[in-house]
Amino acid sequence: MAPDRQETSALDSPHARFEALLARHTGLVFKVTSIYCRDAEDRRDLAQEICAQLWRAYPSYDVGRSFSTWMYRVALNVAISHRRSSSRRDRYFHSLDDAALAAIPDPAPHEPDDRVRELYRVIHQLDDLDRALILLYLEGRNYRESAEVLGITETNVATKLNRLKHRLRRELADSRPDVGESHGTR
Amino acid sequence: MLIRGLMWGRAMELDDLKVAWAQLEQRVETTEALAFSEYKERRLDKSRRALRALGWGQALHCLLWIGLVAIVAPFWIEHRHVPHLLVAGLALHVYGVATIWAGATQLLLIGRTYYTAPVVIFQRRLAELQRFRVVSSLALGLPWWILWVVATVVGAKWWLGVDLYAQSPGWIQVAMGIGGAGLVLSVWAARRFAEVPPQSPMLRRIVDDLAGRRLVRAIRQLDEIARFERE
């Protein structure tokens, strides 16, 4: 029996079982919010909305299937819909290009680690579905799992991921400060 | 020494992104756990129920128009020998049927849109629902510039026994002419002032609808999803 099912079968009420599963996978919710939201307050709102939708959808969860796959689908669907609603309200937050990105406040202004800042920067330049794909890649999901979450073929996942990786490599190379060019090699 | 994104003088690579991602995981688990506890305190009481509320709204709207059509159909049958009352009654009847069809279609589209579906499928269905809502809102909303006159004629005859058109055809024609002009003007104004959105969210939504912006956004989203689905 899978770990998720072992733990939850011991709990009495559906709500207790749901909260136990959610507590084990809380990191997933917050990582989804971090790639779709630019400020802390928005991330908290989105996290709560995701949790609420997960609870509402919980009766349809098949215990024989992977909870994380089910959870990814709900979390990503809520996050993308939330971002589209926010962009309709704000009218300024659509697909980002370099100029628009530069004009928006840094989502991690106090982030001491440049790698995490760079992570935010490259991910926030992607459109909604590409962000979902890169999230699954960074989470170490294989092609089959990613295809199941996204609803596309494994071949499509592989092709898109290769293109995304090429793009990200270019972004990361272009963002290298001048001091690096004189001291190191790529 | 300040740790920088450059490691040993080279640019960040994808593996560095994975390292940064792992660091982020530790960080969110420790600093953002507050949001989880807030959720547990607030539970589900304040959660938004946008799709469900939309479904209930459409169902009520359908029921209302089914009731109205049930009144309007016998009306134009009874007055089928009076041309202006026949035309008015038929216009309202056709409008009512169109409204019921649009509401039922939206209910079907809402019913097949659930968050547990694969991401691409859910987003496509949501965008299709959005596109349908925008088109039907415009198609069913704009005619009211003129339809209110028709509804007044039918209502006055049905309720008070007064034939407004027979008593004052000029007033009816002027009102419909003003309504037609208002329809054209409202679309022109929305397109003209679309770049300067009003403060009110409701007005902003109306302006976006009349200017075609929401429709363009819905179509753009569908294109984006179709591109993503293609290999």
Task: Give an account of the 3D structure.
- The complex is a heterodimer of chains A (186) and B (231).
- Chain A contains eleven helices and no strands.
- Chain A is mainly alpha-helical.
- Helix content of chain B is 78%, strand content 0%.
- Chain B has ten helices and no strands.
- In chain B, α3 packs antiparallel against α4 (83-111).
- Chain B is elongated.
- Residues 1-9 and 44-48 of chain B have low confidence and may be disordered.
- The chains are: A mainly alpha (186), B mainly alpha (231).
- Chains A and B meet through α2, α3, α4, α5 and α7 of A and α1, α2, α5 and α10 of B.
Give, in order, the helices and strands of chain B: HHHHHHHHHH
- Chains forming the largest contact: A-B, 73 and 58 residues
Give the overall shape of chain A, derived from the CA principal axes: globular
C-alpha-based Rg of chain A, rounded:
18 Å
Distance between the termini of chain B: 45 Å
Strand content of chain A: under 5%
Give the overall shape of chain B.
Answer: elongated
Major sheet details of chain B: none
Judged by helices, strands and strand pairing, the structural class of chain A is: mainly alpha
Question: Which residue ranges of chain B are poorly predicted, with pLDDT under 50 across at least 5 consecutive positions?
Answer: 1-9, 44-48
What share of the residues of chain A lie within helices? over 70%
Distance between the termini of chain A: 47 Å
Nearest-angstrom radius of gyration of chain B?
27 Å
Tell me how many strands of chain B there are: 0
Quick check: average pLDDT of chain B? 84
What is the helix tally of chain A? 11
The proportion of residues in beta strands of chain B is under 5%
**Average pLDDT number of chain A:** 78
